[in-house]
Amino acid sequence: MNKTVNPNELTSDDDYGPLYAARKKVYPQSVSGTFRRIKWGLMAFCLGVYYFLPFVRWNRGLGAPSQAVLIDLPNSRFYFFFIELWPQEVYYFTGLLIVAAVALFLMNSIGGRIWCGYLCPQTVWTDLFYAVERLIEGDRRERMKKDKSSDPMKLERISEIVLKHSIWLLIAWWTGGAWVLYFNDAPTLVKELVTFQAPMIAYIWIGILTATTYVLAGFMREQVCTYMCPWPRIQAALTDEWALNVTYRYDRGEKRTSVKKAIELRALGEQVGDCVDCFQCVAVCPTGIDIRNGPQLECIQCGLCIDACDNVMKKIGRPTRLIGYDNDINIQRRQEGKAPVYRIVRARTVVYSAIIAVVGGIMLYTLATRSLLDVNVLHDRNPIAVKLSDGSIRNAYTVRLLNKSGYDRVVAIDADGPANLTIHVVGVDSVTPDRPMVVIPRDSTSELRLLVTAPAESNPEKSIPVRFHVTDIGLGEVASTTDNFVSP
Amino acid sequence: MTDHHGDIDAVSGKSTTGHEWDGIKELNTPLPRWWVISFYLTIIWAIGYWIVYPAWPLISSHTTGLLGYSTRANLAVELANLEVARGEKMAALAAAPLADIEKDPALLALARAKGRTVFGDNCAPCHGSGASGAKGFPNLNDDDWLWGGTLEQIMQTIQYGARSGHAKTHEGQMLAFGKDGVLKPDEIVTVANYVRSLSGLSTRKEYDAAKGEKIFAENCVACHGDGGKGNQELGAPNLTDKIWLYGSDEATLIETISQGRAGVMPAWDGRLDPATIKAMAVYVHSLGGGK
C-alpha cells in the first residue's frame, strides 16, 4: 500500500498474521443500501435462471426433445433454444470457455472482482444461506451471543438450529434437483423423482450437489474464496492500477476519531478524518476483514461495506463514499491533493473486448453458416486397393453421412476424380446406378460402404485425389470431402 | 531366542545376542512388534483364505473352498449374459432372409461388425486380416470366385468348406499332370505358355500355340471349360482373367500343372452357429467382390 513499511518493524502477528490459524467465525450484520439491492436483484436473477430454466419449453417438432436447455448424454446432443450441437461441434464450447474467461478478465480490469462479489455461485448461495440464518437466529449480535452462550440449550434454541439446517438442506436439495433436470426432460424427471422411479444416477447426483451446497454455503463459506479458489490469485496477477476496487479513502478517513471528538476538533478548525471507527464496515463484511487495511486477498468486493459506511456517514452528516469504488492511481493522487482520474478505455480493456468480439463473432458466424449435412470418408487401410478380374482397380471407403436437420433426407453420392470412375454403395440398388441414392433419417448418422472402381485402361497413377459430394436431392444442399484413390 | 538381557554392550547400552567373534559381540535388535504381529495376522488370514477359496492342488483336482468361487464358472456366466444381451439382435439376423440383410442398414451394420470380429478370429490366419489373401489363399475383396460369389454360394463355402472332408463340401482338384505322368515335361511347358496366352500374357518365342491348344483341349477343358473360362461347380479357376491364386509366371504355372493343386478350406458348420455364419457371408459379400 501507499503506507511505507519498514520490514524490520514487522515482527508481531498483527503485521504478518500467523501462518496457521483457526477460522474465526464470521457473523455478517444485515445492511441496506445500493449494493445490497444490486446483490438481491442479481441473486434473484441468477437463482431464478438456474432453478427454472429446465422447465422452459421449446418446440422442435415431433420426436425431438421439447426442453429449451438440455444436455442429452445418452443421445450425445446439446440443445440450447434454437441451437442443437453434436459432439463433433465441441469447439463451440471451447469458444464459449474462451469468451467466458476473457469476460472475467474484462470485468476484473474494469471493476475488480465483480464476479466474486455479485455473481459467483459460492457468493450467491452463501449470501442466501446467511439470509436464512439471519431470519431464524437474528442479526450479528444475537447470533454471536447465542453461539457464545454456555447455558444448556432450551427447546427454542434447538428448534431454531433444526429449522435453519432444514431450510438449508431444502435449498441444497433443490440446487441438486435443478442440476439433474438439465440432463433429462424436466417435468418427466420431476414426476419420476417424486415417485422414486428415476434412475439411481439422478439420486446420486442430487445427493452429491445437496452435500456440496450444504457444506460449501453453510459451513465453508468465505474459506472457499480465501483458500480453495484460484481466481483471487489469478485476479491479483491480472489487475492494474486503473481497475476499480472497493477502497477505503485514507485521505478522507484518517485520522480516525469518535463522533463527539470530531465535532469538537472541527469546531476548533483542526483537521480530522471522517472515519469514526464505528466498525460497521467490519460488521457487515462476509469475509470478516477490515477494508481500511487496504486491498486484501480475502476481499470479494461485494460492496456491502460501502452501504454500511454510507449509512453511517448520512447519520453523522458527512459526505458518503468514504468507502467506494476507486482505483490505485486515485489513492495516490488523493494523498497528493489532486483530482481523481478514471480511465475505462485503455489498452487492457480494449484488447479484452476485441478478443471477446472476435471469438464471439467467429462463433456466431460459424453457427449461422454451419451445414446441417456433413460427410466423412475413411479409406480402407487393408487392403488399400483391390485388382479385379478384368484388371480394373477398386478402392473401398467407409462413408459417414451426418444429417443434423430435423427431417429425413434423400441424398445422392458422387465421386469427382479421374474419368470413368464408377461408384457403388453396398446394399443399395439405386435406380440411378452411377449415382447411388440413400436415405439419412433426421438427426442421425448413416455409415455406408462405398466402392469406387477405375477401369483398367484408365491406368491411374499411384494416388490421386477424389472429391466426394453428397447432395440433398430435395434441397440442393451439398457436403463435400476429399480422399485419395490408390492403385496397388 | 535365548535371552541375553544380562549381557549389555558397554558402548551402545543394548543387549547382545551372546554371539561373539574375535571379541566383537552381536547386538540384539529384534523385529518391531507391530511387524511381528502383522506377520502372524497374515498367516491367520492365509488359513482363512485356504478354507473359503480354492487353494491346494490335489492329485487330480484341487480344494474348492467354502465359497465355491471359480473364475471359470464366472466367465461362463458372463459369456451367457453376453449371449442374452446380444440375443435379440442376433435373432433378428438369424430370422432375416439372406438377401434382405444388406438392404437393412441396421442388420448390415450388425452383420459387418459381427463378421469382421469372427473373420479376425477364424479366417484371418489364411485369408489375411483385410481378407486380401495370399498365394494359395484367395483374396475375398475381388470379384474372382472359385466356388461362386453370390451370398448363397459364399455361405455354402463357409459352411462346408472346400475339400474339407465334410459330406457336403466342395470337391474337385487340379490333377498332377507331370507327377502322374500324364504329360511330358515339354508338353507341360507348351500348355503353360498357352494358358498364359489366354489372359494376354507374354509367351516363349519357340512355343507352338497350336500344340498348346491341342494339349489344353485334351486335358484341361474338362474342368476349366472351353476357352479356359473356369467352372465354379468344380472350383476350377477362370484362366482368362487377371487374377491368379498361385501366380501367373511360367515357373509357377509349370509347378501347378505338374504337381497339381488342392487347397483346403475347412468347414465351419458346427463350429460357428448358423447366425454367425450368415453374418460372415454378408461380411465377405460386402467386402466388395460379391455378385
Protein model, in words:
The complex is a heterodimer of chains A (488) and B (291). Chain A is an alpha+beta fold. Chain A has two domains: 352 residues, no CATH class; 114 residues, Sandwich (Immunoglobulin-like). Helices cover 43% and strands 17% of the residues of chain A. In chain A, the strands form four sheets. In chain A, strands 6, 7, 8, 10 and 12 form a five-stranded antiparallel sheet that branches. Chain A has a four-stranded antiparallel sheet with strand order 11-9-13-14, with no helix packed on it. Chain A is elongated and about 115 Å long. The N terminus of chain A is likely disordered. In chain B, a hairpin with a 2-residue loop joins strand 1 and strand 2. Chain B is mainly alpha-helical and 291 residues long. The radius of gyration of chain B is 36 Å and the shape is elongated. A two-stranded antiparallel sheet of chain B has the order 1-2. In chain B, helix 2 packs across helix 11, helix 6 crosses helix 11 and helix 7 crosses helix 10. Among the domains of chain B are: 120 residues, Cytochrome Bc1 Complex, Chain D, domain 2; 75 residues, Cytochrome c-like domain (Cytochrome Bc1 Complex, Chain D, domain 2), CATH 1.10.760.10. The model of chain B has no long low-confidence stretch (mean pLDDT 92). Chains A and B meet through strand 7 and strand 12 of A and helix 4 of B.
State the CATH topology of the domain at 72-169 and 265-286 in chain B. Answer: Cytochrome Bc1 Complex, Chain D, domain 2
- Percent of residues in helices of chain B comes to 40-55%
Strand content of chain B: under 5%
- Largest interface, by Cβ-Cβ below 8 angstroms: which chains and how many residues each? A-B, 20 and 24 residues
Low-confidence stretches of chain A: 1-8
Q: Looking at the structure, what is the overall shape of chain B?
A: elongated
What is the CA-atom radius of gyration of chain B, in angstroms?
36 Å
Structural class call of chain B reads mainly alpha
* Rg estimate of chain A, integer Å: 33 Å
Largest sheet of chain B: 2 strands, antiparallel
Transmembrane segments (chain A): 40-58, 90-107, 161-182, 202-220, 350-368
Organism (chain A): Bradyrhizobium neotropicale
Keywords (chain A): 4Fe-4S, Electron transport, Iron, Iron-sulfur, Membrane, Metal-binding, Transmembrane, Transmembrane helix, Transport
Domain 4Fe-4S ferredoxin-type (chain A): 265-294
